[in-house]
Design brief:
380 residues, 3-stranded mixed beta sheet
Length: 380
């Protein structure tokens, strides 16, 4: 699990339990550890590591979603990369624990990751299939989701066939990526972010921000979508204090700040070599103040013209509350259904009201229906 859960066995166990994966639900023991064994490198420019617990098994089958990576998949140069988030990454980072994550995120990341991650995966598969018995990868189970966070493909793949099949599944995943209701926004409000939602807290492919290191001029920030200001209301409980990716936002609430475990976040971001993702945005106070601060940060002079959108998270973009100015543009579109107008987003204390009367921002996300729309109240 790389640096997840603060790179500790207990933290990683707590993280997956927060996602509903327990020994009872899985029907098998769960073992977590950070120790690794070192495998032959065959001349690679980094170590090849394998989880010590997994190394004792007769065989290992990895499972992961295949999808665009939240950093290497966003940069124009790296959109051509055949291996992003998927089985290769799980073989390398997932089974290499914190030490392998630190190795591959060092130096000029993400260039180093794109060069070495596939090479390490090939080496581990080679050591698993050459009869030497030095590694034990049998294969993997790849999962591809559609734009509504619904499983559309589950496929078992032999170890020797992962290199060929994974890029094909990545192409399918890219074709089904969700999008915001508009690619030009003054303000985007996120009910919650967190490690359980995206490796970067919010999916950079959705919000169009990455925060590449300024010293690497070959890596340019995305140009689509264009969002002038991003506000975060809560850190998801299932993130267990990991606020990684908060640097992508401009404004956060005091409740978000209170939920961040700075030590855990620091350890994760230093390991990932992405310190920009840990910069603390401006804390504006309550939820209503977050919105108003975002409006000002976006340079909007007349609130009635503000093109604002609120979503639960970047996993759930198909239902949104939008401002009247944005609604006027979206309402005529054939794929938009307006549920209700003139709704209030905040209570009289300035706290966020539940999304659709059902969702509580502090709770783990739930799948939502496609093509549904709500509006932010004009009085905001």
């Amino acid at each position: 699990m790389g640096t997840h859960g603060g790179a500790t066995p207990q933290g990683q166990r707590e993280m997956i339990e927060g996602l509903g994966v327990t020994e009872e639900s899985a029907g098998c023991p769960i073992r977590s550890g950070m120790e690794v064994v070192e495998l032959p490198t065959n001349g690679l420019k980094c170590r090849v590591l394998h989880d010590a617990i997994a190394a004792k098994a007769d065989g290992v089958i990895v499972l992961n979603r295949v999808k665009p990576h939240t950093q290497v998949g966003t940069a124009n140069f790296y959109r051509t990369q055949r291996f992003q988030s998927g089985l290769f990454k799980m073989i390398v980072i997932g089974l290499g624990n914190n030490e392998q994550a630190i190795d591959l995120h060092a130096g000029n990341y993400p260039r180093r990751m794109n060069e070495l991650m596939p090479a390490v995966a090939r080496q581990k598969i080679a050591l698993s299939t050459d009869g030497s018995g030095l590694c034990n990868i049998l294969g993997g189970v790849a999962v591809v989701e559609n734009g509504y966070e619904q499983t559309m493909i589950v496929e078992a793949i032999k170890a020797s066939e992962i290199e060929t099949r994974e890029p094909e599944l990545l192409a399918v995943a890219c074709a089904h990526m969700p999008r915001l209701v508009s690619n030009k926004l003054d303000v985007l409000l996120l009910d919650q972010t967190g490690k359980n939602i995206s490796g970067t807290g919010m999916d950079t492919n959705i919000v169009g921000r990455v925060l590449f290191p300024a010293w690497d001029q070959s890596l340019s920030e995305p140009t689509d979508p264009v969002i002038k200001a991003i506000g975060i209301h809560r850190l998801a409980a299932a993130s267990h204090g990991n606020g990684g990716g908060m640097g992508l936002a401009d404004i956060v609430s005091n409740k978000f700040v209170e939920a961040v475990d700075l030590k855990l976040t620091w350890k994760h971001l230093i390991s990932a070599n992405w310190v920009a993702g840990g910069k603390l945005p401006v804390c504006a106070g309550n939820d209503a103040e977050v919105y108003l601060a975002c409006v000002r940060a976006a340079g909007v002079l007349d609130l009635s013209t503000c093109r604002a959108c609120r979503i639960v998270s970047t996993l759930e973009v198909t239902e949104a509350w939008v401002s009247p100015a944005l609604l006027a543009e979206l309402e005529p579109l054939p794929n938009i259904e307006v549920l209700q107008s003139n709704l209030s987003a905040f209570d009289h204390h300035g706290d966020l009201l539940p999304f659709n009367g059902q969702h509580q921002p502090t709770q783990p996300h739930q799948p939502r229906s496609p093509k549904r729309l709500k509006t932010l109240a004009q009085e905001m």
